[in-house]
Design goal:
The chain is built from 14 helices and ten strands. It has about 400 residues and is an alpha+beta fold. It folds into three domains: about 70 residues; about 100 residues, Orthogonal Bundle (DNA polymerase, domain 1); about 200 residues, hpI Integrase, Chain A. The relative contact order is 0.08.
Length: about 400
């Protein structure tokens, strides 16, 4: 039912607020849709009243039709929309994995429900069902082992992603797969490895003896928190040296049997992060080095603007940072850690330096702040007095505070 409210502006102009109610959400809150109509000044008051009644009627019909569509769409039908939306954004392997999760576990449990009828209870029932499901072996048979809690969580993350898109499209008001409203089987959380402040300082000191491209790669990994594929897919044009801002809008990946390609970053959000001056200076030096190589090789150089390249200017292979980093750690006697550990280190040091969770979430490109929350427990033994900037915390310059 529509409601019309006449309003007057300071300049004497007239407008009408049209409000239509289409029921209540799952929390009992009334669902309202608003539209403003401003009649032309030349229109008479009587004609304006008549026109606003017509517009209100059409708006009410439009809202009711939308409400009916929203109330009748089935989860199985919306999943098709979800997969169509995700396919261009995912690597083929990831897309196939998502499809398998959906077809084998999610649709059998939720596919027959209307999208608006699925509440946390239905998601919880799915969690309970998955927790007792047997592992499927490659030969098609089932083992005696049940799915690991981490596997159950991964399947529910896919469900959460589906409903997140439904919320974005205005088909539902909130996400019934929100982890805060669910109970998951207990699992031993894998320990997230990081470099301590002391280790990171020693690492950066050793890094100064390495080739410029590798120095730049590791510095960027630490100070930007970017993922390996995102780093490999960076271009010089992604950096504004005046503002020290880096735009992360693509990631490299490679499928077996296929050439390396790029896709949007994980969670599909292009993000901007501010770099330290040291990082910017290194990138400028590397740009000069690449220009010299281009001059030397001429037509043999692939002039594609990549920051991190092979010897011919082509994009660096996405596996190269891992291999080079392992050799570097072994060379200088550091304990072996994965390349991704640099991203964890960046997040933890930012929190240690006084950044809030929202800032870290934004820099790392997490779609869900729950993902960022995992770094908080790493700060329990930290020295809370150290609240200098991330650059100062990791710098070995004598004019900075020593840790």
């Amino acid at each position: 039912m529509s409601n019309i409210k006449k309003r007057y502006g300071k300049d004497g102009s007239v407008s009408y607020l049209i409000r239509v109610s289409t029921g209540y959400d799952i929390n009992g809150k009334q669902i309202r849709h608003n539209k403003t109509y401003r009649p032309p000044q030349s229109m008479s008051p009587k004609k304006a009243e008549k026109e606003v009644q017509r517009i209100a009627f059409e708006f009410e019909q439009e809202c009711m039709v939308l409400g009916n569509i929203k109330n009748n769409i089935r989860f199985s039908d919306f999943v098709k929309t979800y997969l169509e939306t995700e396919k261009p954004l995912l690597s083929p392997t990831t897309y196939d994995t998502y499809t398998a999760h959906i077809n084998n576990f999610i649709l059998p449990a939720l596919g027959h429900y209307k999208l608006t009828d699925i509440k946390p209870k239905q998601i919880q029932d799915l969690i309970n069902q998955l927790s007792t499901s047997k592992k499927k072996l490659q030969n098609g048979k089932y083992s005696d082992e049940t799915l690991k809690p981490s596997t159950v969580q991964r399947y529910i993350d896919t469900v959460k992603s589906i409903f997140r898109l439904a919320v974005k499209q205005g088909l539902i008001n909130d996400n019934p797969a929100d982890s805060k409203r669910l109970t998951f089987p207990k699992a031993q959380k894998p320990k997230t490895e990081i470099f301590t402040r002391k280790e990171a300082t020693e690492l950066l000191k050793a890094l100064q003896k390495e080739p410029l491209q590798f120095q730049t790669l590791i510095q960027l990994a630490i100070f930007s928190g970017a993922r390996r594929g995102e780093l490999v897919a960076l271009k010089f044009s992604d950096i504004d040296f005046e503002t020290r801002q880096l735009k992360i809008e693509r990631a490299a990946y490679r499928e077996k049997g296929h050439p390396q390609a790029v896709k949007p970053p994980k969670d599909y959000e292009t993000r901007i992060v501010t770099l330290t001056q040291i990082c910017c200076d290194l990138i400028k030096e590397l740009q000069k080095e690449k220009a010299a190589e281009k001059q030397r090789l001429g037509n043999l150089w692939a002039d594609e603007d990549w920051i991190f390249t092979q010897s011919n200017g082509k994009m660096m292979f996405v596996t190269t940072p891992t291999a080079q980093f392992s050799k570097f750690l072994e060379k200088y006697g550091f304990k072996h850690k994965k390349f991704h550990c640099l991203r964890h280190t960046s997040a933890t040091m930012l929190l240690y330096a006084g950044a809030n969770l929202k800032q870290v979430q934004s820099r790392l490109g997490h779609s869900d702040i729950e993902t960022t929350n995992k770094y908080l427990h790493m700060l329990e033994d930290a020295d809370i007095d150290a609240v200098d900037s991330l650059e100062n915390l990791l710098s070995d310059e004598p004019n900075n505070n020593n840790s």
